[in-house]
Amino acid sequence: MNAPLRRVAISVLVLFTLLIVNVNYIQVVRSDELRNDTGNTRVLTEEYDRERGSINVAGTEIATSVATEDRLTYLRQYPQGELYAAVTGYYSLVYGNTQMERAANDILSGNDARLFARRLADLFTGRDPSGGDVVLTLDPAVQEAAMAGLEGVTGAVVALEPSTGAVLGMASTPSFDPNLLSSHDPQAIRDYWAQLGDASPDPRLNRATSDNFPPGSVFKVIVSAAALSSGEYTPDTVIPAPDTLTLPGTSTELENFGGSRCSSTGEQPLIDALTISCNTAFAQLGIDLGEDRVREMAEAFGMDGEDREIPLPVVGSSMGDPENDAQLGVSSIGQQDVRMTPLQAAMVAAAVGNDGTLMEPHLIDQLRAPDLSVIDETDAEELGQPVTPEVAGQLTEMMESVVANGSGRAARIPGVTVAGKTGTAEVGNDAPDHNWFIGFAPADDPQIAVAVFVANGGGTGGDVSAPIARQVMQAHLEGQG
Fold it and tell me: Is the backbone peptide bond immediately before 386 cis, with ω within 30 degrees of 0?
């Protein structure tokens, strides 16, 4: 073989080798990644030939598939659309899937390994294959109350069962209609997608889990927990509460909300400082405790900066990294770089209400095969013990005072003792404040813990968020009989 032919042969051999390597890389190494890519419409098209399982809440299908007569055998529908959109997400021919449609895709599509026997039986019997069902922990009354309370505002509500971590409600506004993203008309889907993309804020974002925000005075519960856990403080310990506080190493004067006075004497019991949400008292308290104690407590409650799955993806919450005592003081009132998701805020309330034990939040109650047999069930799981039962009892006493005598009066429920904490967070750039409320009820036997977040509400947590929390807690308690 002469030199030119030899070079051509070698080049062809190299190209074939590269082709074989690439094919193996795609089919073996990247197979799972490509199959799970939400933009892989080929996989979605194949799945449309199989009846997708339903997503259920309290015996009602909130996501279901119906037979059609077009080229795609089944159409995904969401009977209550916007009410549950933050949880279900969408299942779209053009844009893939999100939220529970994505998190539970294997069971819903019928590809889960636990359905292998069913798929094998389908193959031999000629039965049409179908996916399994997902049963959620949500309480419809809680969900409806949350969405009604958030009507007309941008925000989120998360409600948890303190003893188990079951998610009783998860709402985010503004919402969207997932039906318009799951149609079989690609152009109509793209038109609605563009409409959502042009909206501000984006309705597709689940604000309960997908973003974090400055919590303001809600963070004072964690600082209180750190103080009580140190053994150096009780609810009745008198602490400094000046009209203004000069932050260490600066000339900056920290004021109380609206320039108000916390105490005529410049000091007050810790329980009173939380009741009226005294900024200067908690800024000084955080400085006196030190960053290590405050951070340790924040992380014990789950604010470790790590993302989690419930199984919806949840971004991390963190107290940030204060560089000095001045920043620590501002962080201690939930400002500076402190960030919480509404889910994390609800976890703080739930842990206090559960005698100091933090439970793993979960949205899925059961997974069912197409024949409705249960193939998996979620067990309650402890995440940790941020505070002792004794400290949890002290925090509950202080949070009861917030609702009975202080900034959280609008969360009162007739005949029920409610424990809670308000939060009003500055966001800068002359934007209206964020408004928060966290709490649980009944305080002596908590059945529900809630966090309400209203973005740029412009008022206070007590005025804006506490009434929504009351409606949500009351809806659940009335349903419990």
Answer: no
CA neighbor of 145 nearest in space, from 166, 159, 161, 134: 159
pLDDT at 458: 87
Q: Which residues are catalytic?
A: 217
330 Cβ contact list (under 8 Å, min separation 6)? 247, 254, 283, 322, 336
* pLDDT score of 365: 98
What does the pLDDT read at residue 228?
98
CATH homologous superfamily of 216-339 equals DD-peptidase/beta-lactamase superfamily (3.40.710.10)
Q: Residue 384: exposed, middle, or buried by beta-carbon count in 10 A (0-12, 13-18, 19+)?
A: middle
pTM reported for the whole predicted model: 0.89
Q: What is the pLDDT of residue 135?
A: 98
Q: Report residues of the chain scoring pLDDT below 50.
A: 124
Domain locations in the chain?
216-339
For strand 55-57 and strand 133-136, is the pairing parallel, antiparallel, or unpaired?
parallel
Torsions phi, psi for 36 (to 5 deg): -90, 0
- Using CA atoms, how far apart are residues 315 and 308, in angstroms rounded to an integer? 7
**pLDDT value at residue 117:** 61
**For residue 223, what are the contacts with CB-CB under 8 A and spacing of at least 6?**
282, 285, 286, 289, 294, 297, 332
Token pair recorded at residue 128 = 């049409």
Q: Identify which of 178, 141, 170 has the alpha carbon closest to the alpha carbon of residue 63.
A: 178
